[in-house]
């Protein structure tokens, strides 16, 4: 049954024949997410292009956090970035290029542009329908809350909505599955780089994680430090590699754009693989539409809902156009002879070894540890409002879920159970479907907030002129 649901969500639902004997397989989620991104991009009047300066302004603007126990818009962006930036930004990008060629990078970029509009809509709605959080302080919310608001009737205000319950359950299943994937990826990378047995990695990792996640408000404080450092180090090191190989940059971009439209693959019958590997990588990585990031966006104490929407849109760009592109450049600037026959983490570590010597594989192991660990901390932050929606405001349910996630992290370090991984993929697929059901009818509310915010900014600019 699990396999059937997985195939329905992620398998090729429709296959379109293409010239050269290739074919384009479209999964249900690709069919839902890409048109949704295009639709919201049009409805927001091409927000990713038109309002990119406003996204930067929202980041640089003075912190407008007003409550002592709440988090700011920037902190909400850091939490969502911690979850977006993970193992997929390293191994996932390498896998996409290995299967679809350099052209997959272009389609990854394109999906990110459309995904930014979807991210704006869901984050803005999360802000509109957020509630006070009596347990942790500040605010909480997310798709479960705006789905509830969409379907609830006045006479049944305190009852739970079936669709919102299904979303929350899907999220909790997904994040449990991801916990195991994180444990497995960290222990494998550490064992490859330092030859440390997985059991030692498991014990140390779970102890450190427990100290952070079992404390009331340590999560955001830790991510405030971790995320800028890890993303900054990875970006700066990639920048060093690009500058060192600057003469290769024109040929790398030429290869990306040439292969994106299948000038080489069309002859070999592989253009479908190019498009779909890039599209799936972009969708998996930036999470736009899945309903995860709004769980962090709702917690922000910010001056206007649309402002948080713009910050979360920027998060999609940070993830895909910045971090994923870093991994792509590292690989595409490595001579093919050095990485022939390699896959996944081995391929990326060997690429880094070519560029940085023996320091390269060690750096990748450390950065993967940081990326994955921050994702684990972030997903438990996402879980908070969904646990509260399902089980009410009590510490017992919150703590039990954290213990379950820590147990999955421990098990993942020792062994990989594909059944649990499939459950995680099913969870995120179902979340996406339930989330999109609410996004379309609620879109006018988010769009009205955008219009209001743009009017406010216009007046501010006039006043300062």
TrEMBL record:
It holds the Pfam family Na_Ala_symp. The chain crosses the membrane at residues 20-42, 76-100, 106-125, 161-182, 194-213, 225-244, 256-276, 316-339, 359-382, 403-420, 426-443. It is a multi-pass membrane protein. GO terms for cellular component: plasma membrane. The keyword Oxidoreductase does not apply. One of its GO terms (molecular function) is amino acid:sodium symporter activity. InterPro entries: Na/Ala_symport. Keywords: Cell membrane, Membrane, Symport, Transmembrane, Transmembrane helix, Transport. It is found in: Cell membrane. Belongs to the alanine or glycine:cation symporter (AGCS) (TC 2.A.25) family. NCBIfam families: agcS. PANTHER family: AGSS FAMILY TRANSPORTER, SODIUM-ALANINE, AMINO-ACID CARRIER PROTEIN ALST. This is Amino acid carrier protein. It comes from Anaerostipes butyraticus.
């Amino acid at each position: 049954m699990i396999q059937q649901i997985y195939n329905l969500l992620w398998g090729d639902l429709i296959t379109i024949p293409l010239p050269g004997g290739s074919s384009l397989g479209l999964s249900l989620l690709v069919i839902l997410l890409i048109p949704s991104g295009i639709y919201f991009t049009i409805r927001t009047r091409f927000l990713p292009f038109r309002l990119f300066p406003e996204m930067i302004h929202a980041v640089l603007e003075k912190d407008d956090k007003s409550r002592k126990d709440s988090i700011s818009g920037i902190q909400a962006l850091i939490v969502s970035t911690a979850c977006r930036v993970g193992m997929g930004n390293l191994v996932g990008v390498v896998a996409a290029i290995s299967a679809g060629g350099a052209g997959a990078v272009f389609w990854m970029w394109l999906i990110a542009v459309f995904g930014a509009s979807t991210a704006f809509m869901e984050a803005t709605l999360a802000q509109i329908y957020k509630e006070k959080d009596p347990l942790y302080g500040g605010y909480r919310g997310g798709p479960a809350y705006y789905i509830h608001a969409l379907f609830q009737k006045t006479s049944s205000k305190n009852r739970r909505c079936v669709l919102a319950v299904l979303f929350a359950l899907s999220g909790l299943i997904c994040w449990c599955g991801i916990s195991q994937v994180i444990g497995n990826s960290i222990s494998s990378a550490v064992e490859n780089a330092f030859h440390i047995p997985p059991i030692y990695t498991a014990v140390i990792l779970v102890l450190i994680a427990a100290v952070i996640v079992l404390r009331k408000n340590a999560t955001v404080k830790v991510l405030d430090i971790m995320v800028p450092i890890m993303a900054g180090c990875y970006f700066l090191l990639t920048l060093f590699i690009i500058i060192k190989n600057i003469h290769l940059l024109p040929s790398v971009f030429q290869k990306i754009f040439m292969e994106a439209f299948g000038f080489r693959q069309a002859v070999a019958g592989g253009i479908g693989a190019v498009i779909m590997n890039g599209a799936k990588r972009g969708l998996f990585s930036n999470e736009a539409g899945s309903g995860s990031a709004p769980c962090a966006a709702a917690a922000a104490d910010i001056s206007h809902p649309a402002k948080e929407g713009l910050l979360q849109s920027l998060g999609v760009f940070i993830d895909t156009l910045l971090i994923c592109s870093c991994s792509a450049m590292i690989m595409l600037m490595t001579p093919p002879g050095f990485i022939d026959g390699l896959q996944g983490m081995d391929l990326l570590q060997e690429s880094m070894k070519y560029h940085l010597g023996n320091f390269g594989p060690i750096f990748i192991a450390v950065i993967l540890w940081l990326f994955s660990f921050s994702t684990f901390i972030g997903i438990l932050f996402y879980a908070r409002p969904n646990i509260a929606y399902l089980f009410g405001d009590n510490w017992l349910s919150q703590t039990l879920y954290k213990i379950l996630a820590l147990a999955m992290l421990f098990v993942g370090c020792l062994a990989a159970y594909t059944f649990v991984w499939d459950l995680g993929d099913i969870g995120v697929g179902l979340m996406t479907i339930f989330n999109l059901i609410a996004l379309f009818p609620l879109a006018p509310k988010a769009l009205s907030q955008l219009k209001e915010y743009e009017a406010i900014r216009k007046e501010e600019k006039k006043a300062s002129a």
